[in-house]
Amino acid sequence: MATTELTADTIQQTITDNDIVLVDFWAEWCGPCKRFEPIFEASSQAHPDVVFAKVDTEAEQELSMELSITSIPTLMAFRQGILVFNQAGALPAPALEQVISAVKALDMDDVRAQIAAQETASQN
C-alpha cells in the first residue's frame, strides 16, 4: 500500500475512519526525512492493514503548528482515533516495526480507561 498525502482538510477523517494510522511529518529539505522515506514506504508495503500517511510540513504549516510539530521527521501513530505514539527523529526499520507491533497489540479499552482516569485526576 502506498502512502497517503494528508492535509488539514483530510487528516481528521483519515484518523477517524481507520483503525491504525501512522503519520510521517516531513519536508523536502530535510535530510533525515529523505532517509526515513524508503523505510516508511517499505513498511507500508508490509502492513496493508495500516494507513501510512505523510504531511508536508512546508505545505501544511498551520496543521504542523496545531499538532506541535517542532522537529522533523516526526512520527505519530493513531489507533481508533487516539494518539498513542508521538516521536521526533527518523526511526530505523526495526524500530518502526516495533512501534507498529506495539500499536497493534494495544488494548484500546485499557487505553481509553487510562485516558478517562487521567482526565478525572486532572479535574480534581
UniProtKB/TrEMBL annotation:
| UniProt entry keywords in alphabetical sequence | Disulfide bond, Electron transport, Redox-active center, Transport
Q: Taking every annotated instance into account, which residue ranges of this chain make up the domain Thioredoxin?
A: 1-105
What Pfam families does the record point to? Thioredoxin
Q: Which PROSITE patterns did the record assign?
A: THIOREDOXIN_1, THIOREDOXIN_2
Keyword Disulfide bond present in the record's keywords: the answer is: yes
Query: What's the superkingdom here?
Result: Bacteria
Which family does the UniProt entry place this protein in?
A: Belongs to the thioredoxin family.
Checking NCBIfam families in the record gives: thioredoxin
Write down what this protein is called.
Answer: Thioredoxin
Organism, scientific name = Cellulomonas chengniuliangii
